[in-house]
Amino acid sequence: MDELSAERVDPRVEEAMAEADPLSAYYHQCLTLAREWADSGGSQLARERSIDEVAEHLPEPPEQVPLEVNVLATVVAQFTDVGSESKLLEFRTGMSEILELLPSSPLNAEAAPGDAPWYEKDFFQLMTELMLFSDLADSQTEILAAVVWSCVVYGRDSSSIVALLASSRRHPAFQWGRAENIDETTVRVTLNPCPFHHSRTHARPHLSAIGLAQWLCETVVKGICRSEDYLASEHVGEATLAELVDGL
Q1: pLDDT per 10-residue tile (average), the chain, 248 residues
Q2: Which residues are CB-neighbours of 37 under 8 A, at least 6 positions away?
Q3: Which of 9, 91, 156, 230 has the most C-beta neighbours closer than 10 Å?
Q4: How far apart are CA 198 and CA 231, in angstroms?
């Protein structure tokens, strides 16, 4: 598949959805574009193409695209398999193991009144909150780990979802989540020691000379590459999540 095109969406599906709910139909077009990006070359595609290609080929919206999380969640549930209970358990198990190594992670903090802890949320809800509403500067390792492990567990379903979320946070017609309220083009620099190998003294730079939303897009590409390389290797099933994200 050489090019991405919104025209590849089944017109019968889109027509029926548009009559019932135009926003759902538009979300479905966007998710389809992201899925085509994920399906058309795997990690090799991710190395050669920027995730910005997803945003560049999104169907032109009539106006600023609103974020209705419940509507988007319904579309995702209809066209992906991220509702699998067994996969959700596997995803939570991997994330629990890595969060034990990150005691100061925001995900380990007590849930705010009226909210639920991360391990009680479904996959899409958690990824939406992490990728759209979290402070990217404070959750770098957690987001990277969630992207890598979700792509291992959910495969291309996750690749398409995280690609859509990342590009929509950055795309000017969307700017979903925190990007609606803050300037994410500002350069921010942090130096985070590798949290999984305390004997190492070097620090890994993050968010240096790039904007936060751009960092998220690049992180998604790296996560997809790492997960697909791992799934295609002879060591699949052997590595821990901490090992998979180390060095990214």
Answers
A1: 46 54 87 86 53 68 78 93 94 95 92 92 95 85 94 94 88 67 45 41 40 82 89 89 87
A2: 4, 45, 49, 51, 53, 54, 160, 163
A3: 91
A4: 27
Residue type, 110: E
- What CA–CA distance (Å, rounded) separates 221 from 215? 10
pTM for the structure as a whole: 0.79
- For tokens 């994200």, the residue is 245
| Alpha helix (H) residue ranges in 9-84 | 11-20, 22-39, 42-48, 52-56, 69-79
Which pairs with CB-CB distance under 8 Å and at least 24 residues apart come from 213-217?
213/136, 213/166, 213/169, 213/170, 213/179, 213/184, 213/185, 214/170, 215/136, 215/140, 216/131, 216/136, 216/143, 216/166, 216/169, 216/170, 217/50, 217/51, 217/52, 217/166, 217/167, 217/170
pLDDT given at position 161: 95
Q: 144 Cβ partners below 8 Å, 6+ apart?
A: 219, 222, 223, 245, 248
